[in-house]
Amino acid sequence: MYLDRLSITGYKCFDAEFSIDLSPGVNVLVGENAVGKSAIIDAIRLVLREDEFGHRGIRDTDFHCAFTKGAHSVGSLRIKAHLDKLTEEQRVAFLPWSDAAGKATLTMHVDNKLTAQDRYRPVVWGGASRASAFEWELFDTIKCIYLPPLRDAEAKLSDGRGSRLARFIRNLNTKELGTAKKANTKHPLEEHMRKFNEDLASDKGQTIHQANELIRSRLKDALGPVFGQDTSIQFSEVSFSRIVESLRLLFFPKAMSKVDTDVFRGLEENSLGYNNLLYLATVLAELTLPHTQTEYLKVLLIEEPEAHLHPQIQVRLLRYLQSTAKEAGVQVIVSTHSPVLAASASLDSLIHIVGPGTEPASATGLKSCGFSITSKPFVTRWLDATKSTLFFSRGVLLVEGIAESLVIPELAKLVLATHNDCAKKNKKEALPETLEDAGVSVINMNGIYFRHFMQAFCDLKEAETTACIPVRCAGITDQDPVKTIKYAADPKKGIPYRPTPKDIETRKDVMLQRLRSLRHLPEPIMICLCARQSTLQSGRASFPIRYVHLNTIWQWKRTTCPPCARSWPNFVMIHPK
After folding, report:
1. 12: DSSP letter
2. Sheet strand arrangement including 350-354
3. How many CA atoms lie within 13 A of 528 on its CB side?
4. Over 525-560, what HEC string results?
5. Among candidate residues 450, 419, 453, the one with its CA nearest the CA of residue 433
6. Alpha carbon of 503 to those of 283, 403, 506: distances in Å?
7. Do the Cβ atoms of 149 and 336 come closer than 8 Å?
8. What is the pLDDT of residues 500-524, one digit of tens each?
9. Phi-psi region of 341 (alpha: psi -120 to 50; beta: other; left: phi over 0)
10. Which residues make Cβ contacts (< 8 Å) with residue 262, sequence separation at least 6?
């Protein structure tokens, strides 16, 4: 059984109904900031009653309120969880929540109305009917654990009440504690601690015994035998919970080292990244325990698992989460801003989130984008930390090579500067100054593989309708000549094409016309295409690109810019006339 779909209405940033489809195993939520990834995680925590959040109650800020003057919060919020792939045993257990198709639903509805106790009262029901009897005991079969983005791993693993380490050890000893309670005996750990305290208190040569005797005698002298009390100095109360709450986790910087425990240190001396990993390891150990009680659904929610981790560990952590989800039946839902994690995750696990704004809020799983059997492995293989930034952009420009990825942002600066000058004169709203300011990513494809990637943004299949990421995407190619020219007499035989100086001059004129029409600059632009040195300059910047033939072959070669005599890796120069 797993969480198949989540529907949200009126909760936080989601006004109209928003739905997200999830998969068993690992789900990776990607998208820019403030699109609702954390709101999705919080909605799951609320409806599944995650122990640190599900009992806190609803707050007035949980109701959606538009960012407009005089806006009011919505009248109610609703969160609905759909559970699928129930086994026969689970269908029997969740029968009150199930429909005729065997799928279970859980709904939470909260009206924006305070009770006499100044609280919001949530109404929870299972199945289609709100009036049906609800069995709260079914929540005991659901285990939901949440790791926040700004997690204090050191505090969670140190001694004291609320220790995650103590909770893990209690869960590890559930069976033994139950047996000892039925037999009215002590747990072996309690018995060991009791004997240890007795030995300390009875050893008259120890300081603890002497200190205790002095306290007892002074208390007796002060209050007498009638009003006085007795004392005993020991390390902990002899109860299992108090014993494990006094434990703390220590570390040593090398794994599986056979060294004396005296050299282990407290977590306050460890790095933040490794403390997060220790915390995550404790949570995963708890989730994968073979519990005696039935747990039908296990969900792990992690916000920004990449926190304080370098790229290699991020990739290894994701791989471990994938294997744990598969082997232990844990559904993992993570939200991330890391291109490294986005590039390392499988396409089927990626879910792109677009927040409410100019476009309606939506969640698009890349598994539903209609990638062909050839495109899916290709895109998976070619995604890297650079190309995966397209999942966090407001717009995407796909270009053929390094030259275009350097030229286009600089040309865009000029075009935008000219537009903004005109807008200022006409008292109109200006555009961002750069593509980066507009949230547009220029992705270097290193080839003409546009079709593989564009399938995620537009439906290229005419015979079927597929989901698309609602982000504008454009592919820009150059005008490379055809590689062969066919004989008229024998079309099957071709001749290698080599551009002539005349071809280059013709293409220079074409490019010049296009630049003029594109830029609308007050002065014309001339492209210098010296066969040995070419540079691109504007009034704001000089940037490098090496050009052998215009729009034909790009090469990397160190050369010197003639106007400024500065050395760059490569050049394409455009000089003002």
Report:
1. T
2. 142-147, 297-303, 331-335, 26-30, 350-354, 362-365
3. 20
4. EEECCCCCCCCEECCCCEECCCECCCCCCECCCCEE
5. 419
6. 66, 21, 5
7. no
8. 556 555 655 665 555 555 444 443 3
9. alpha
10. none
Q: What are the residue ranges spanned by the domains of the chain?
A: 2-151+295-354, 164-247, 390-477, 501-576
pLDDT digits (tens, 9 = 90+) for 276-315: 888 888 888 888 887 656 788 999 999 999 988 999 999 9
DSSP output for 308-351: T--HHHHHHHHHHHHHHHHHHT-EEEEE---HHHHHHS-GGGEE
Query: pTM score, two decimals?
Result: 0.77
CA distance 453 to 440: 16
On the question of pLDDT at 434 being above 90, the answer is yes
- Pair of tokens at residue 277: 């990993």
> What's phi and psi for 123, nearest 5 deg?
-115, 125
Task: For 173-206, write each residue's pLDDT tens digit.
Answer: 888 888 888 888 888 888 888 888 888 777 777 7
Q: Which amino acid is at 259?
A: V
CATH 3.40.50.300, applies to 2-151+295-354? yes
